[in-house]
Amino acid sequence: MNKQIDLNAVFTQFDTKTAIAPYGNGHINDTYCCEPAKYILQKINTSIFTDPDALMENIERVTAFLGNKIKEAGGDPERETLTVIKTKDGKNFYRYDDENVFRMYTFITHTKSIEGDKTLTDLYNAGKGFGKFQQMLSDYPADTLHETIRDFHHTAKRVEALKTAISENKAGRAASVQAEIDFALKHASCADTVLNGIASGEILLRVTHNDTKINNILFDEITGEAVAVIDLDTVMPGSMLYDFGDALRMGGSTAAEDETDLDIVHFDKACFESFAKGYLSETKDVLTEKEIELLPFSVKLMTYECGIRFLTDYLNGDTYFKIHREHHNLDRARNQFKLVAELDQMETELKDIVKGLLA
Ligand code: ADP
Ligand code: GN1
Ligand code: MG
């Protein structure tokens, strides 16, 4: 955290007085756990989320809506969705200065995050968790939500951003990554499929999470079942294919997103099957034929999109994703492209798995 920030002044605003420690493995916000673990304090990344008012309005609306659904189903809203802690002035975030904006959530206790090794049961539970989240939001009035990051999953625009980064070559790295650039441009034809489906109405625009990494779900530390879907910054209208594909981008890989030994990076069909089983158990009745058909493709699409975002950031000089070592974004891009190459060969098998699950 920026050394000049007076954290006591931040705490005073939220009427809390606790020690803090950096927490979690997100690539975007700075997260701190307040001890004893009662609150999560987050410095919102305002260079990415440029309108904190709109962002927090979305989160308040969506969590209130989910809270009602959870209550109706006999659940505990304080545990099964995020709870925003207001400042003493009744605001849902605190602006310390122009760049430093903080929010606070209740810490959801007795849960675990899955960052690395995961079992097939974990994937089943994650699929069920994200599926239920989407199902609960299926009657949310989508047009009342702000678009917190414009064109977030507009893959064709992501390809354009990559092309701009190549030609601008801001960090002088383009020549050294020609092989990755060639791979990215060769596979760019996948970018339009979902966009075309949305335009034709075969794929529905729904309220989706849009950032369904497995570590954006909290699991019960004892039963292992999904408790709450978190990191709601990107909840906005989108395709369910984005959520399904993005979850398996990491959930279906045999290695971490930044593993550099590509010989151990593979896409695992059993992981796909477990996640899809959990996901479809909650959503199969609401999906269109086209959405079902494209479930396997969506994994390749989202892995490709994330790969080109990492490559673009590398070419731009690492300004978007947090990096923890030199060439981190390049390592991440190579890793994603290895998965894309495998997924390219697997579509028929994955389609058969989906057919089997729906039979
Ligand atoms: P980022 O956008 O940077 O990924 P997240 O909102 O996902 O930030 O938070 C980072 C990590 O902090 C999560 O992966 C999770 O482990 C933990 N976390 C966030 N919110 C809560 C919460 N309310 N209760 C418990 N843990 C949380
Ligand atoms: C970011 O915030 P976090 O770490 O859950 C990113 C996702 C990427 C992901 C790659 C707002 O997710 O889109 O898929 O990193 N979130 C944003 O690991 O850009
Ligand atoms: Mg996160």
Your description of this structure?
There is one protein chain. The chain is α+β, with helices and mostly antiparallel strands. It has 2 domains: 103 residues, 2-Layer Sandwich (Phosphorylase Kinase, domain 1); 239 residues, Aminoglycoside phosphotransferase (APH), C-terminal lobe (Aminoglycoside 3'-phosphotransferase, Chain: A, domain 2, Alpha-Beta Complex). The chain contains 13 helices and 11 strands. Helix 4 runs parallel beside helix 9, helix 9 runs parallel beside helix 13 and helix 11 runs antiparallel to helix 12. Bound molecules: adenosine-5'-diphosphate, 2-acetamido-2-deoxy-1-O-phosphono-alpha-D-glucopyranose and magnesium ion. The site of adenosine-5'-diphosphate has 18 residues, from loops.
**In percent, how much strand structure appears in the residues?**
5-15%
CATH architecture of the largest domain, please? Alpha-Beta Complex
Gyration radius over CA:
20 Å
- Say which CATH homologous superfamily of the largest domain is assigned: Aminoglycoside phosphotransferase (APH), C-terminal lobe
* Shape, per Cα inertia axes: globular
The CA-CA distance between the termini, in Å, is 52 Å
CATH topology name of the largest domain: Aminoglycoside 3'-phosphotransferase, Chain: A, domain 2
Tell me the number of helical segments per DSSP (H or I, 4 or more residues long): 13
